[in-house]
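Model the whole thing, not chain by chain.
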Amino acid sequence: MNTLVAEPSAARPRSAPAVDPAAAVARTRARPGLGDTFNQTFAMAWRALKKMRRNPEQFFDVALQPLLFTAMFAYVFGGAISGDVDSYLPLLIPGIVAQTVLTTCMATGVQMREDMDKGVFDRFRSLPMSRIAPLAGPMMADLIRYLIAAVLTYLMGLILGYRPGGGVLGVVGAVLLAVFTGWALAWAFTWIGTLARSARSVQGISMMILFPLTFLSNAFVPADTLPGWLESFTRINPVSHLVSGTRDLANNGVITAQVGWTLLAGLAVIVIFMPLSVASYKRHL
Amino acid sequence: MTATPAVRADGLVKRFGDFRAVDRIDLEVRHGEIFGVLGPNGAGKTTMLKMLATLLPIDGGRAEIFGVDVAAQPHRVRQLIGVTGQYASVDEDLSATENLWLFGRLQGLKAADARATARRLLEQFGLEDAAERKISAFSGGMRRRLDLAASLITRPPLIFLDEPTTGLDPRTRGQMWNTIRGLVEDGCTVLLTTQYLDEADQLADRVCVIDQGRKVAEGTPDELKTQVGDSTLQLQLAPGADQALAREVVFRVLGEEPVTTPESGRMNVPLDVADRAADVLIALREAAVSISSVSVAKPSLDEVFLALTGHGTDTGTGTGTGTARPAGVVPGQDTNSPDKPVMEKAR
């Protein structure tokens, strides 16, 4: 406690400055390079991973939701929709994967908002670092969440008797597609996170977007059972593409146009919302 | 060595709606000095500092750090400064070592260098025992030191310190002062804001006083204090005492007109030498003016303010100066009363 650097004030008459500001100015660079951005993003991802390990309760929703929803939906709707539980599972499991991944994106946005309100973000802002790193870093770390969510859903399905026709490769492909889509969509929720006033409002806004999107899709029911106007909506709903894409991969082991549309939609979301998020984050300065 | 000032601001303005938080402030901080920005809460100190540190957009005027324009080249400016805010800006979920490592990595240090720097700084700031402890278990002083350490990772030539000792106990405060002096001995320039005259007095080579977004004075701490006298004699006349007579006596002894509050019979007068208080008391006794209390106080920020602006510090958004008075200064008994007696004799 007492081992502080400086001697008491007696040493007031100072020696010549050891720091040469002119040299320091000459060393500065106008903007962060690509390599810097990369390293900073990884450093921020490291921070997010550390935080996840310290606060494992964050994983409760990611872990519990697929387990709970899979079992609930399978037994409640299975008989009504597909005649029995076993024939409902191939329809349901990809739907649950999509739903879980979307909810997990929402958590990304909410936590971003919470994080940005903390004092440490003042320091990030004052550091000569890339403005995208504080956003992209946590999102990299969140890939793990999407992975956990998707894998757990499939495991729960397997336990209930789901036997995916696409085999291991098909399921792996489906998981990867879901993880990618989740990561891409997280940029949209991060953008909401940088705009909203509080973490609570991020949650509220995100819920209002998420619920219609997941339920007005083919995630839990065959789309042709819906009234015409609703069916047309579910056909253009990106969640439907994700669900169909993962079904095609996991149940049939084929890469269809649905997979392509899902990837395209994901890329579109990134292209639109990544710059928006960064711009909005900068405005917060 | 170089003629370029560490900080130069011309007509700096920050508006929040119609309110001008910073109103055309000019500033020049020379390389190698500690420059103090003195003012009460809400005067615009932090806002000004945040603009200089690229944390708030500048609404008017311009600012340069070592000749680099703040608004045009914020990324360059960020490489020249270290910022320590009023509230510790470190990550609560990480340990001290992890925090410093992270900030090192974010500023381009290699992993091994970041680790070595973290170790060196923790040692330098006496935090090595707490290196792996959770930040939430840190005391206020430890947090501030960690926060300061985090600003020094890349040895920036200019350090901004926003109220570095507000809320610290006297001992920790003294340690912080020594640390800040050490920074300048290493060749840094320090710009700090403070609410405490004695802090500015102890640390700063030059001081500017800010009030309601405007700069009201600038100079060395000594120059500031001579404007209000070295200390102040505060007299409370007994009820019914002859106030006019008392004023006349005080003026005769000290050659200075006292500032009076007729309603309460209080009068304040600057003293160049504290000993002369005795002369005043004797003269009052001889004139048969009875007093109920007397005190001699060093000039407080409030008095500097009163002298410079004609109003006290309690006009803004509440002073807060009474919450954490530093050791050397008068302990305030009432936040809003402009006079803070050092030794009050009852009757």
